[in-house]
Amino acid sequence: MRPAVHGEPVTLPMSFKQIQDQDVAIRLLRGIVLQGRMPNGLLFWGPGGVGKRMAAHEFAKALNCGEIPDDACDVCLSCRKVDHGNFPDILRISPTGKMRIIKVDVIKEVNESAAYRPFESNVRVVIIEDADRMNEAAQNHFLKTLEEPPSNTVFILLTERPRFLLPTIRSRCQSVRFGSLRTETVASMLARRAELSGETCDSLAALSGGSMARALQLMETNRRETVMDVVRRLAAGENPLLVSEGYGAYIQATEKRITAEVMGEKGVQVSEESDEEDSPEKEELEAHAAGLVRQEMVEHLKLFDAWYRDEFVHSASGGPRFNFNRDLENQLPVRVDLDKHAEKLQAISDAWKYIERNMKKQRIFRDLFFVLAS
Ligand SMILES: [Zn+2]
Predict the structure, then answer these.
(1) 63 C-alpha vs ligand 1 centroid, how far in Å?
(2) Domain that holds residue 354
(3) Dihedrals φ, ψ of 174, to 5°?
(4) Can you give the pTM of this predicted structure?
(5) pLDDT tens digits, one per residue of 158-212
(6) What spacing in Å lies between the alpha carbon of 15 and ligand 1's midpoint?
(7) What's the 73 CA to ligand 1 centre distance in angstroms?
(8) Total domain count for the chain?
(9) Taking the chain, what is the end-to-end CA distance rounded to the nearest angstrom?
(10) Final residue of a domain: which of 156, 177, 198?
């Protein structure tokens, strides 16, 4: 296979072309399909929302397409079956339950079915989404599977957090890295999905850090409005204590919502509605919910960071360049005290650390708002 040359124009015929900005990964996958030398395991890793799942789908399709040697034609019977989810030799596994775990039983089931020959194709494809959510038992069992792999089966592991997989699993899989998308790519994908102004698409794309999943979250939640409301009130000279009280109520509501989603409205009557024999303990669920709340607060801090960074750059460069919040350009102050702003950015980064150390959130944000107001 030819090495990928940076900047070289890539023409991807047919269906791999749907995956944008992942030229290196796609070249690698096309090479595998073309040569037919199938590794037992492939590890697709990289940020969320950049095309890993779609690439796995297109790879499985290309393996089974008889029309094009290194891609899928999208029109033959096999391609259509894969697209409609009724191709028998593609198995998909994803985390289930309130804890979003992949359990050992699921891996065992897959192994059992992998003992038989594929029904319609030469290669069976097993796609394990969020593979890092395999618990310890599942990972150990899966490792044994990789050590004595069933013939005619390729496992594709998708993960944003490869470090949560056993090193021995990682080393037995061929690594396929997926990078962030270009801002322009995210913006044009957003524009196709929703009726947003070009400026809003550009802003959400810039704030997404190259992840379509994050861009969609920004579009679908009130996260950004909540953060910008705080920014405006502090800029208008409102008492940071009052602002932090309002925001504290918001944090509480967020905690309540996430906890209810994880634990169920009535607390931990999970075992009744769950058909899993080993229902997680209350503490485990609480820890899981707390982790999700922390993630949410970190997303807020990223938005605070982006805004104050925009103010800083705008003031330092004397114009709107490189800013994240392109749709709010007219709200940027012309000049700010750059030293003070450096302190603000530092305070945001400190708050991030404190959140991850699981310190009291209301207090972290109250202290932060006092710095931001100064
Ligand atoms: Zn085809």
Answers:
(1) 9
(2) 221-373
(3) -80, 130
(4) 0.86
(5) 999 999 999 999 999 999 999 999 999 999 999 999 899 999 999 999 999 999 9
(6) 9
(7) 4
(8) 2
(9) 58
(10) 177
